[in-house]
């Protein structure tokens, strides 16, 4: 196991956010963390990257506890893409080159530049390499942040809603690239997503957070209408179309259930 999250709990001040979270991942696996807003998904990513420190429990990478590792060691093994990214006058090339900092001792070398150039081509960012970040759209800036993380050549890649601000083509391209790199480079990928169909299309493992802890975790066998409805409170249908499984919200049934609830309340009030 490259990642082990062992009974991790965390509070913001005195408010519990996560309790007794426990899971592990092997190399080559891409995990989608799912759940409603405020379920603790982003917090969990920050705990795995030691941006936050668990109040209880331990996170291990290759058997080593994060608490025992120096920040540079963590940066050599873990890359993190946050939800929001600030613009600056730095060029796209230089912004992506920052991902090489954990591996640089004195100055950048030929290999560092080659890695950046390769990733810029993979993400179709090469034409923007000399453009300042201030001239990029939100979607282009998101891809630059992902490129910088990939330039770290991490063992663990953490992405917090990486498809935000991306159009459909770029959503598919970015997640396909992440999935392929996780497999070909024997990394672990952990991605927070709201779009269940993207998760079904690209992830190998799934973890639902609800009520501050893990509600369900596993492979595709847990992606059932029952589990999804219990987590989100929305009835869904799960269908197979060709090679892909699609999750469809059943709005009509939800409306019927709400009408029935209103009728029951009305009867009780009479």
From TrEMBL:
Name one molecular function that GO assigns to this entry: ATP hydrolysis activity
The protein's matches in SMART domains, at most eight in alphabetical order, are given as:
AAA (SM00382)
Q: Which domain of life is it from?
A: Bacteria
UniProt entry keywords in alphabetical sequence: ATP-binding, Nucleotide-binding, Translocase, Transport
Record Pfam families? ABC_tran
Record has Cell membrane as a keyword: no
* Domain ABC transporter span(s) in chain numbering: 3-236
Do you know which InterPro entries this protein is assigned to? AAA+_ATPase, ABC_transporter-like_ATP-bd, ABC_transporter-like_CS, P-loop_NTPase
**Is ATP-binding set as a keyword in this record?**
yes
Alphabetical list of SUPFAM superfamilies matching this protein:
P-loop containing nucleoside triphosphate hydrolases (SSF52540)
> PANTHER family per the record?
HEMIN IMPORT ATP-BINDING PROTEIN HMUV
What is the designated name of this protein? Iron(III) dicitrate transport ATP-binding protein
């Amino acid at each position: 196991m490259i990642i082990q999250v062992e009974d991790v709990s965390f509070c913001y001040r005195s408010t519990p956010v996560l309790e007794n979270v426990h899971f592990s991942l092997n190399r080559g696996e891409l995990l989608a963390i799912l759940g409603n807003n405020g379920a603790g998904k982003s917090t969990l990513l920050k705990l795995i990257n030691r941006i936050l420190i668990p109040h209880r429990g331990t996170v291990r990478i290759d058997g080593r506890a994060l608490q025992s590792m120096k920040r540079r060691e963590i940066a050599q093994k873990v890359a993190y893409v946050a939800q929001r990214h600030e613009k600056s006058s730095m060029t796209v090339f230089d912004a992506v080159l920052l991902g090489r900092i954990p591996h640089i001792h004195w100055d950048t070398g030929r290999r560092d530049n080659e890695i950046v150039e390769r990733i810029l081509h993979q993400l179709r960012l090469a034409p923007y390499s000399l453009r300042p970040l201030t001239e990029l759209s939100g979607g282009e800036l998101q891809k630059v942040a992902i490129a910088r993380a990939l330039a770290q050549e991490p063992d663990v890649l953490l992405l917090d809603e990486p498809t935000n601000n991306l159009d459909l083509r770029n959503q598919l391209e970015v997640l396909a690239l992440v999935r392929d790199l996780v497999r070909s480079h024997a990394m672990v990928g952990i991605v927070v997503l709201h779009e269940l169909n993207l998760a079904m299309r690209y992830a190998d493992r799934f973890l639902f957070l609800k009520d501050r802890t893990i509600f369900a975790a596993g492979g595709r066998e847990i992606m059932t209408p029952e589990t999804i409805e219990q987590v989100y409170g929305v009835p869904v249908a799960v269908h197979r179309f060709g090679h892909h499984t699609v999750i469809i919200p059943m709005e009509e049934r939800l409306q019927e259930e709400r009408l029935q609830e209103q009728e029951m309340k009305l009867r009780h009030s009479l």
